[in-house]
Amino acid sequence: MESSDLRIFQQVARHKSVSRAALAMGYVQSNVTLRIQKLETELGISLFHRSHTGVTLTSNGVKLLAYADQILQLMDEAKEVFSSPDIPMSLRIGATQTVSASHLPAFFTAYHKAHPSVSLSIHTDHHEALMNKVVEGSLDGAFISDQYTHEQLTAAYAFAEEVGIIASREHHNLTDLMQYPLIVNQQSGCPYRTLLERWAASHQGIPTMFIEFDTLEAILKGISEGLGISLLPRCVIPPSSSFQYIELPETYRTLTTQFVIRNQKNPPLALRNFIDILNMKKTLAKC
Q1: How far apart are CA 174 and CA 197, in angstroms?
Q2: Residue of 159, 198, 216, 285 with fewest CB within 10 Å of its CB?
Q3: In the predicted model, what is the mean pLDDT of residues 123-135?
Q4: Which fold is adopted by the domain 90-157+259-285?
Q5: 90-157+259-285 and 161-255 share one CATH topology?
Q6: Residue 221 in this model has a pLDDT that exceeds 80
Q7: Mean pLDDT value across residues 109-121
Q8: What is the CATH number that goes with domain 3-82?
Q9: DSSP letter for each residue of the chain
Q10: Cβ pair 103, 157 in contact under 8 A
Q11: What is the fold, at CATH topology level, of the domain defined by 161-255?
């Protein structure tokens, strides 16, 4: 049994498709199929249920995936530990635009000071896409809302942050605020958007209009121009006289963000070190 066969098997299991796994790995589909068949012949078992929509693991496939994950993780860690100093380790982290703007700079700064040889990269996307990328293995971990869960993921760290209504200075009270549109993210599952809608509903003053933007910068610009109001962490308010921050009742005041990774007994060394930094530097999550 070769490690390369296990890695191909692992990718097919994660993507639930031979063709998608082949595309992700840069292999010819027929080669992936042959390697899976070779592995099944060698072990004398069937690893996948096959259908026109893709593949799913058999009970034996589930057992082998657990072993494959452990074996490949240990092999990757050994390569990282004994790799040449000229070939640095890497860490691929996912986050929403809001978390990227508010908390990641402090997290990355602390990590880089402790592990300067590790190459860091950040991928921004919405919560569900980030969760799926961690499951598929294209990200080592991601910061997502605690309302998202997956059987193949575990939360290695979490923090609560204060959120409130952000408006321009020209809006003076809640009565005024409820007359303006809600400026929200385009993703309907955005936790900030969901909480803002709940708060608006509690005041029986749901605005007749939602204005959707796809970036945090656009949302803040719209607020500063008096276009409407939004709900965001206190951390992201620019140091400008154009904004005012309005505290919310306790029920609506906090949202929890979790850092999720794949279920694994031995995460890669670079990832373990990042989690250690998060847990040692909990104060970094404060605004």
Answers
A1: 15
A2: 198
A3: 92
A4: D-Maltodextrin-Binding Protein; domain 2 (3.40.190)
A5: yes
A6: yes
A7: 91
A8: 1.10.10.10
A9: --HHHHHHHHHHHHHT-HHHHHHHHT--HHHHHHHHHHHHHHHTS--EEEETTEEEE-HHHHHHHHHHHHHHHHHHHHHHHHS-TTS--EEEEEE-HHHHHHTHHHHHHHHHHH-TTSEEEEEE--HHHHHHHHHHTSSSEEEEETT---TTEEEEEEEEEEEEEEEETT--SHHHHTTSPEEEES-TT-HHHHHHHHHHHHTT---S-EEEESSHHHHHHHHHTTS-BEEEEGGG--SSTTEEEEE--GGGSEEEEEEEEE--SS--HHHHHHHHHHHH-GGGG--
A10: no
A11: D-Maltodextrin-Binding Protein; domain 2 (3.40.190)
Res 179: pLDDT:
80
* pLDDT, position 41: 93
What pTM value is reported for the model?
0.67
Residue range 1-34, pLDDT digits in tens: 788 899 999 999 999 999 999 888 889 999 999 9
